[in-house]
Design brief:
The protein is mainly α. The chain has two domains: 193 residues, 2-Layer Sandwich (Alpha-Beta Plaits), CATH 3.30.70.20; 222 residues, Formate dehydrogenase/DMSO reductase fold. It has 16 helices and eleven strands. Strand 6 and strand 7 form a beta hairpin. Helix 8 runs antiparallel to helix 9.
C-alpha cells in the first residue's frame, strides 16, 4: 500500500457552496474566471430523480503525473519534499498539451498570458506544516487533507487511469440512495440523455480551436508521402522549392498554435517522456534529411529520410494517444500514415494501391462518423457526404475511366486533397479528453 498526504473528498457532505474555490482565489491571488479548483455539479440539466451530487476537484498531484510526462518544454517538476507537481510559467510555451493529458482538467490555460496555470498544492503552506487553503476553509468537512492510499480503488468521478492521484473519495454510498429514475416517464430518452450530459462539458480540443494542428499534420502527411514516392523510378518529380515552401508553412503554422511562439525552441526539452517533443524533433530530423537527399540526390539519404518521415508520422499519432476518442475503431480514417500512403500511391502512379487505400480510409471514416456525426450534427452530415464524394466516389470514377489523362489526374489530386483535409479537420471533433463530468453518464446508466 502506497500512503502519502493528499486530498480526501466526502460526497455525502459537499453542498456545492464554493468556499474551497474562494479560499483558493484568496490564497493564490488568481484572477477570475480562471480557477485552479473546480466545483462540479452533476445533473446540471436537473433530470428528475437523478439527484444533485457535487464534487470539488483540482490538481491531485499524481504520483505518475500525466501533465509532467506530456509537457514538451519541461515546465512541470515534482517537489521532492511535498510531492507537489509544480508548474514553471517561465518554461511554459502555451501548447496546452497538458490540458489534454490531465483527466481532472487541472491545468488551466490563461488566454491573456498565453500560458498554463494550475494548483500548486499550496506548497509553501505544506512546507510550513499547514494544510492547503481549500481544505481548511471547507465548512462541512467535505474536503480535507491527510493520509491517502493511492492504490485504493477510485471512487465516482475519479479517473481510473494508472496515474495514482493523491486523492481518496468517501461517502460514495449516497449515489446508491438516489431513487431509480424512469426516463420514459420524464419524456427524456435515448440520445436526448447523451446530448443533455454533453451540455456544459466543453472539450479543449475541437476543429475550430485546433486548426493549426490539423493543417500542420495534414501538410506533414503530404510531404512524407511525396518524399516516399522518390524511391520509385517513374514517380512524379517535385521541385525542391515546393518542398521547402511546404515545410516552412507547416513549421510556421505549428508555432501559431503556441501561446508563447517565441519560446518554441523549448519544445524539445522533454523528449524523454513527451510525445509532442518527439514529434517536433522527428519533424526536424525528417526535414533535414529530406532536404539533404533532394540536394545531393543520394539514395542512402532518401532511405534515411523516408524512415525519418515514418517516425515523424508515428509521433504525430502518438501525440493523440493521451486523449479519449468518441469512435471505437483502433485506426481512424485521418491517420497520417494512411494519408501519406495515399499521396505516395498517387505520386508513384500506383493507382491500384491508391484505390485500395481510399476504400480503407472511406470505410474507417464511415465507422468513425456513423454514431458521432451523422446522428447528431446535420452540418457534419453534409460535410461528411462531401468528404466521401470527393475522397471516394469521384476518385474511383477517375481511376476507372481515365487515369492517364493529365487534367483528370489534376482533378484527382484536387479531390483527394480536399477530402483528406476535411477528414483531418473533422477528426478533431471526435477527440474527447477525459473529464470528471463525464462520469455523470454513469449516474444515468445506473438509474435507467
Amino acid at each position: 500500500m502506497d500512503s502519502c498526504n493528499g486530498f480526501i473528498f466526502d460526497y455525502s457532505k459537499c453542498v456545492g457552496c464554493h468556499a474551497c474555490l474562494v479560499a483558493c482565489y484568496n490564497e493564490n491571488q488568481t484572477v477570475p474566471p480562471i480557477s485552479w479548483r473546480t466545483v462540479n455539479h452533476f445533473n446540471k440539466e436537473k433530470l428528475p430523480l437523478l439527484g444533485f451530487i457535487h464534487q470539488s476537484i483540482a490538481c491531485n498531484h499524481c504520483i505518475e503525473a500525466p501533465c509532467l510526462k506530456s509537457c514538451p518544454s519541461g515546465a512541470y517538476s515534482k517537489d521532492t519534499i511535498t510531492g507537489a507537481i509544480i508548474h514553471d510559467a517561465d518554461k511554459c510555451i502555451g501548447c496546452k498539451y497538458c490540458t489534454w493529458a490531465c483527466p481532472f482538467d487541472a491545468p488551466k490555460y490563461n488566454e491573456a498570458k498565453g500560458i498554463i496555470e494550475k494548483c500548486n498544492f499550496c506548497n509553501s503552506r505544506l512546507k510550513e506544516g499547514k494544510e492547503p487553503a481549500c481544505t481548511t476553509n471547507c465548512p462541512t468537512g467535505a474536503l480535507s487533507f491527510g493520509r491517502v492510499d493511492t492504490d485504493k480503488p477510485k471512487g465516482f468521478g475519479i479517473s481510473k487511469k494508472p496515474i495514482s492521484p493523491r486523492i481518496n473519495t468517501i461517502g460514495d454510498e449516497v449515489l446508491q440512495n438516489i431513487p431509480s429514475q424512469n426516463l420514459v416517464a420524464t419524456g427524456t430518452e435515448g440520445s436526448d440523455v447523451t446530448q443533455f450530459l454533453r451540455n456544459g462539458i466543453p472539450s479543449p480540443i475541437n476543429a475550430k480551436s485546433e486548426w493549426p494542428l490539423a493543417l500542420f499534420s495534414f501538410i506533414g502527411s503530404i510531404m512524407v508521402g511525396w518524399f516516399w514516392s522518390g524511391i520509385v523510378d517513374k514517380s512524379v518529380e517535385f521541385p525542391l522549392w515546393v518542398f521547402i515552401l511546404l515545410g516552412s508553412v507547416s513549421a510556421l503554422i505549428s508555432v501559431l498554435h503556441l501561446g508563447k511562439p517565441l519560446k518554441a525552441y523549448l519544445s524539445i526539452v522533454n523528449i524523454r517522456t513527451s510525445w509532442l517533443a518527439r514529434e517536433i524533433l522527428s519533424m526536424g530530423l525528417f526535414a533535414a534529411t529530406a532536404f539533404a537527399a533532394l540536394i545531393t540526390n543520394s539514395f542512402p539519404l532518401l532511405i534515411i529520410g523516408s524512415i525519418a518521415g515514418l517516425l515523424f508520422l508515428i509521433c504525430i499519432e502518438m501525440v493523440y494517444s493521451v486523449v479519449g476518442k468518441r469512435y471505437k475503431t483502433h485506426i481512424h480514417s485521418a491517420n497520417t500514415i494512411l494519408t501519406a500512403s495515399a499521396f505516395f500511391a498517387f505520386f508513384a502512379n500506383y493507382y491500384d494501391l491508391l484505390l485500395l487505400i481510399l476504400v480503407i480510409k472511406s470505410a474507417l471514416f464511415i465507422a468513425r462518423t456513423a454514431i458521432v456525426e451523422l446522428q447528431q450534427v446535420p452540418l457534419n452530415t453534409l460535410v461528411s457526404f462531401i468528404r466521401l464524394l470527393l475522397g471516394f466516389v469521384l476518385p474511383i470514377g477517375i481511376i476507372a475511366f481515365s487515369p492517364e489523362i493529365n487534367y483528370t489526374n489534376q482533378l484527382l489530386i484536387l479531390f483527394i486533397l480536399i477530402a483528406e483535409l476535411i477528414d483531418r479537420i473533422l477528426y478533431y471533433n471526435d477527440i474527447e479528453p477525459e473529464r470528471p463530468m463525464h462520469f455523470e453518464r454513469e449516474l444515468v446508466v445506473k438509474k435507467d
